[in-house]
């Protein structure tokens, strides 16, 4: 089956899908869009995703959007390299970890730290930013505990849980290295200093198959 992936550089959600495709070794046609194209929300693109967002995976039978849904589709379509486990117990455990990250961890990063730093509003309330940074470490606590007893979030094998969490955490680290974040002493650029198991996991993830090819071009500077 031929796939076309519509994405924009710097999107952690698009990166999730690229990592899954690369790790599984599934070829696809890259349809990189720029921010202006995405903002334009042309009728042609809205036919692919009426919500006007990326990532979108075009298959021979239509389109799929929402990053976790795309990864679940790919795992069923290409089961040779499983991302959601092989037994019912593994499947449930992986979805538990995915849900923990999506429901209790991701939004804190995205809304309270990443968004203000990217939009230039972080220095409007440095105390609030520092409080959010402290909560970020608390929110990562379950991951540190899980990674203390296993190599990956759902056990000793890399799964969808790891691929889904990684881009958002890398985005957090990226924006936390900005001068204004350093000036406010958010101390989020080196997570491994306080969370050594998480730091070791990040190093392992950066060596996974497909990582280098999928690494967002705009994140390389």
UniProtKB/TrEMBL annotation:
Coiled coil: none annotated. Residues 1-82 form the GST N-terminal domain. Residues 87-221 form the GST C-terminal domain. It comes from the Bacteria. CDD domains: GST_N_family. This is Glutathione S-transferase. It comes from Pseudorhizobium pelagicum. The lineage of its organism: Bacteria, Pseudomonadati, Pseudomonadota, Alphaproteobacteria, Hyphomicrobiales.
